[in-house]
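Q: Structure tokens for this one, please.
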Amino acid sequence: MKQLEGVLAVNQLKHIGGGQVFVNELVRELNQFGCRVTYWNGGRTKELLANIFSKKTKFIVWNYYSKFPGISIVLSYFLKKQNIIVVHGIWVYEFCSSVQKKYSTKNDIKNHYIAMRLWMEQFLYCLVATKLVFVSRYDRSLFYSTPLFFLFKGKKQSISYCGVNRKIYFPVNAFRRNELRRKIGIFNDDIVLLMIGRIEARKNYLDAVKILYDLYKSNINQNIFLYFVFSHGNSNDIEYLQRLFKIIHTYDLSMHIRVVSGVPVGGNAIYYQIADAYLMLSKEQETFGLVTLEALSCGCPVFGYDSCATPEIIQDNKRRYLFTTGDTHSVASGIRKYLHYSEFQKRLLRDEALKRSLLFSWQATAEKVLGYRVSHLDRLHE
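A: Here is the predicted structure, written as tokens:
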């Protein structure tokens, strides 16, 4: 492999979530490749500029969600650095949403102005980019659905799926699983459904409550529980959390809901390992869904909607796991059928899911981002 003299990885917003994991794992892999990597994670702008001016810096990987100081990336362009932008479709969501709205108040007009300014900044960033990196085909489709972004189709680009840290996310045997469940207070005959992520409407936790209600009313097992493991931090939507609590009380399911928060990075693995099924219910703007891959890597089957990037991860027996978006009854029926399988059948399906997850790795991601040493997974990333 060709030695890279210097890579500067820039992350706009330090947070707990898939984007943060992406850049953390990318830096880790590049260090293992023997690259000289400098990681700027939202510190002082002076430090960022010093690294941009450094002659040792050849590649700059920009990972951001909304806006970023434009002068930095424009400066790196004139200094002839290799600007690699990791695109998250959620960047441009505000603009695409605002152009469809009617403007009846001054606040609407103000929000549209802010969204348009954001779009203009992002257009400029892409204009000076050497390469665009998407985390899924769905991510790429979102990007090119943005007004005038089709002009960037001639740019060098790649689809670099996420990976999973297998030292953290791995399946456990039945004995260890029961041991972990007892520590959390779960009995062997309890059924555990799971969702993990930030508190925001995009994750669609409300449908999970409806699925739980469907399963509970079918008398599949009175000891069925839905675990929400929420990320902590300023990115959570408290108003959406209040809506979630309201629907929980409406369905009278308070005794069957468990809410967990404050779990450190990587500490969520235990919940995948003890769960019977993971729910992936995002309807839009989920450009990859790292939790899906983490669940599969722990041998936890994933049920949800055939939308966003989920079908790019779950390709085997899709009809068994993925259903029409919004059809909570079908998702519940799919879970119900799975729970009635024998332990032998369940183990075969878990092994099948684990095998699929092995096609994704952070090493392949790093290689695709920088364009060096294409691995045997290259066919997956086209």
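A few notes: Residues 106-127 form the longest helix (22 residues). The domain at 7-163+361-381 is CATH 3.40.50.2000 (Rossmann fold).
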